[in-house]
Batch of 2 targets.
Target 1
Amino acid sequence: MGKTRKFVVLLTVAALALSMFAVAGCEKKEDTDGTDTNGEATFTTIEAGKLLVGSDTEFPPFEFVDADGVVKGFDVDIMNAIGEKLGLEVTFMTEIFDTLIPTLKAGGKFDVIASGMTIKPERALEIDFTAPYYDSNQSLVMAKGTAYTGPEQLAGKKIGVQSGTTGEAWAKENAPDAELVPFGSATDAFAALQAGNVDAVVNDLPVSAELLKEDDRGLEIVAQIPTGEQYGFAVSKDNPELLAAIDEALADIKADGTYNDIYQKWFGILPE
């Protein structure tokens, strides 16, 4: 066998070895850092190893800042559990509620919204929602002892609402003759009601219940408004891989009991 033929044989063997290595490399197995075993990203985040979360952090018990300046709440614990499943460190960033969607769409500040946000068709045109993670309704809060008979009683009244929320949408539709007074947060709306600057507040029921739990401040929930809302986390339409990863992690924490534990911690009951 001459040198030329030996060289050709060696090249052929080398090519076969490379081919086998490439085929083996096509078998991908995802791990928890957003990459597969080939080092290719299965989802992307703004900062490697981190999940940046935009939130209106004045919405207890879903998110709030405690006396030590630490963001806590139901959404916070759920997102931390999801982050653990994905191998990501979760950081909450405070944002005014009605700027959350445009800021997420603009990109570069946070990866996901976790802010007690109701899944609505018009919002879903701009962002992508995960599977629902909480069922909610609205509430009407007024001064203690107020005899409330129905929305018609609100005509000519000042109704405090959090700007950009489903509570504001309900008030516009059901109390068209009332004057709506928008606020940046639910806590600001409640403070205005307590001060007598508005006559009522329309707000998410679990948040109203939380705000009045320790100190009713002379206020009470005079009506529970069934709206059948569901909250979802939201991700940019440009990042479907991250949405899929969060959805999978959310399903996992529901299956392994973590979700139930967090729900009971914050609401004192198990989800229905």
Target 2
Amino acid sequence: MKIATAPALSEDIRTRDAVARSILENGPSTAAALSEKLGFTPAGIRRHLDALVADGVLEAREPHSALIRGRGRPSKVFVMTDDGREKFEHSYDDLAVAALKYMSSQMGEQSIKAFAETRADDIIKKATMTMTKRSHKSEALAEFLTEQGYAASVAVKSHGEEICQHHCPIAHVAAEFPQLCEAETRAFSELLGTHVQRLATIAHGDGVCTTFIPKTARTSTAKKGR
């Protein structure tokens, strides 16, 4: 029986952390995508993925039907679980939740909404400075969100675009207080100058926070300006 040395175990831990962090920051990924991105062999990546699944950090899922192309068995997609996400969350979550619960009990739920709206206004103020430098608003917003730790990207769809936030630093707090997500959505709408729709949130158990920006709304706005 071969016993792993301390340096080997340390390297394994670092690699495993890199695999988990890549999924946390970039969203659901296949073993092949992780192998290419991180520069490890497919066999090595699968070994770490199996270990992370066994530890409850990741979950293997069947890919979405829209992503399946060609013949053959589709590759499984690995997603961060709630337990796995918790390992990477800020240590102040419990304190933040406790503080907001205290505010709610002492001043009523309206105080939580007021706090969420104040936070949304702060997002608008900060994001505007970044977005004025870019012509593509959704990409500029995604860039700003990434700078704030949300690992955001833009996906072009047939009827519009989606801003995907692959990480949420306040997920556990937002799970207790959905007013934060609602106010954030309002901020996105104001920044983009059009109606947007939240399709999924990490706080509600989804793998990615997804905000849909309909193409029709942008087109209608453009036509009215003529």
